[in-house]
């Protein structure tokens, strides 16, 4: 495998909150949190909210009780907006170098091999362009390996948020590759081992028991010993900390082994029809993801359960159903999901969550030889292509199967998003309006 280092990691700061602030500048400087599905808990926080002590996953009702006078603005998650802003961010960030790996909704690795000149200055220019063109603040980390680029990004963010923790000149853009050895050693000694990409809480705890507490301590470990005691994965991480590239860019995401679509409901559901609607919708969305990676599924798991926090009788049930032959056709998947829900549904139960999971995935070209019947064959594939194209152009749910319900009225099982802002960039009827 080719490892085209050096690498840069561009990461948007407090991404969900920053997306909201682009269209509501009055939120700048104020504590803002974005809430999970059904407005349950904090999944994104502004720096001001973090300074108050609000943690990731903090329940919203506890936040209101603990900080009643802090002026906190809470918003429902607006994933249509965040997804579109992410696409814009990645498009501009690609200008930094010839190769790109979109790592997450707000992070992208850029391969900088062959780029001449001052990489830090170039990164500052791209960062300014992202801010001007999208309104999103970012930080850039540069290193000879992906792990060091990720570490450099952490340093750039920390130097910007917490002046004095690292040298001020490393704020926003940090290039570890050009630091003097003594300065790099000091920075690694000041950074906890848990901040290393690829070292989770469990491994970090084990390392601390061996007095490996900082990045410098980890970088001094013998890779062969690490491999024998832990794994080849951790060995690669240690080698990358030592400056040896072991992890290349993934320009095409690998195919998923399972595809799940699940949701918590906005209110308890106790009748069969809305439960069938819900899993029909989930199966249709899972089918879109399956077709996007060119796959087919042979089995589907359908589940539903009550809330573990509500009083009354608890209930949790799942069923795994085999498709007659592997398929990616929405009609097949929806019919299977509906059949599964009818099998596990129990009257009188207050359901709060349901979902489907596609199992036994195989490439589209892997055929099961038997006569094509029902929703199969070339005509079916054309139909699904048209369905996906229409939904991609006009928005999720522009065309849906009848068993998923209509949009004439809010469906009983849909999420509660009472604090969601408009989807400014993807819905004509929600564009901001300037009034004189």
Number of helices: 14
Q: What fraction of the residues are assigned to beta strands by DSSP? A: 15-25%
What's the N-to-C terminus distance?
A: 59 Å
Main beta-sheet strand count, sense and barrel state? 5 strands, mixed
Poorly predicted parts:
none
Give the overall average pLDDT.
Answer: 87
Measured on Cα atoms, how large is the radius of gyration? 24 Å
**Element-level helix/strand string:** EHEEHHEHEEHEHEHHHHHEHEEHEH
**Portion of residues within helices:** 25-40%
Number of strands: 12
- Based on Cα principal axes, name the global outline: globular
Strand order of the largest sheet: 5-6-1-7-8
Description:
The chain is of the alpha+beta class. It has helices at residues 15-23, 47-52, 60-66, 79-93, 119-134, 146-161, 181-189, 201-209, 215-219, 223-229, 232-241, 272-292, 330-344, 378-394, and strands at 7-12, 32-35, 42-45, 73-76, 99-104, 107-111, 138-143, 173-175, 259-269, 295-306, 316-327, 351-363. The strands form three sheets. The protein has a five-stranded mixed β-sheet. Helix 10 (223-229) runs antiparallel to helix 11 (232-241) and helix 12 runs antiparallel to helix 13 (330-344). The longest helix has 21 residues, at 272-292. It is globular, with a radius of gyration of 24 Å.
């Amino acid at each position: 495998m080719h490892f085209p280092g050096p690498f840069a990691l561009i990461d948007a700061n407090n991404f969900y909150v920053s997306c909201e602030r682009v269209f509501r500048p009055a939120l700048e400087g104020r504590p803002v949190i974005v809430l999970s599905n059904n407005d349950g808990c904090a999944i994104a926080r502004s720096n001001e909210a973090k300074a108050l002590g609000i943690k990731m996953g903090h329940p919203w009702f506890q936040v209101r009780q603990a900080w009643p006078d802090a002026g906190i603005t809470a918003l429902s998650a607006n994933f249509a907006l965040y997804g579109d802003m992410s696409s814009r961010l990645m498009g501009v960030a690609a200008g930094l170098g010839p190769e790109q790996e979109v790592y997450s909704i707000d992070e992208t690795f850029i391969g900088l091999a062959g780029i001449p000149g001052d990489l830090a200055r170039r990164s500052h220019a791209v960062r300014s362009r992202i801010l001007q063109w999208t309104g999103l603040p970012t930080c850039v980390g540069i290193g000879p390996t992906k792990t060091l680029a990720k570490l450099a990004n952490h340093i750039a963010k920390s130097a910007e948020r917490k002046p004095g923790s690292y040298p001020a000149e490393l704020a926003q853009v940090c290039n570890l590759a050009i630091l003097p050895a003594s300065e790099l050693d000091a920075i690694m000694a000041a950074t906890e081992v848990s901040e290393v990409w690829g070292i989770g809480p469990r491994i970090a705890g084990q390392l601390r028991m061996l007095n490996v507490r900082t990045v410098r301590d980890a970088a001094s470990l013998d890779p062969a010993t690490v491999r024998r005691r832990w794994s080849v994965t951790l060995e690669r991480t240690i080698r990358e900390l030592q400056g040896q590239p072991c992890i290349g860019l993934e320009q095409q995401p690998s195919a998923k082994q399972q595809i799940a679509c699940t949701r918590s409901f906005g209110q308890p559901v106790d009748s069969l029809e809305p439960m069938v609607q819900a899993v029909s919708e989930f199966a249709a969305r899972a089918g879109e993801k399956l077709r996007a990676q060119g796959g087919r599924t042979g089995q589907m798991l359908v589940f539903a359960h009550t809330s573990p926090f509500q009083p009354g009788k608890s209930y949790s049930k799942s069923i795994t159903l085999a498709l007659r032959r592997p398929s990616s056709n929405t009609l097949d998947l929806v019919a299977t999901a509906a059949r599964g829900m009818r099998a596990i549904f129990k009257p009188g139960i207050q359901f709060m969550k349901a979902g489907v999971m596609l199992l036994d995935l195989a490439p589209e070209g892997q055929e099961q030889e038997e006569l094509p019947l029902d929703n199969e064959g070339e005509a079916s594939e054309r139909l699904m292509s048209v369905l996906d194209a229409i939904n991609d152009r006009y928005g999720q749910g522009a065309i849906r199967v009848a068993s998923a319900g209509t949009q004439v009225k809010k469906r009983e099982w849909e999420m509660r998003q009472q604090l969601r802002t408009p989807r400014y960039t993807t819905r004509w009827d929600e564009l901001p309006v300037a009034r004189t």
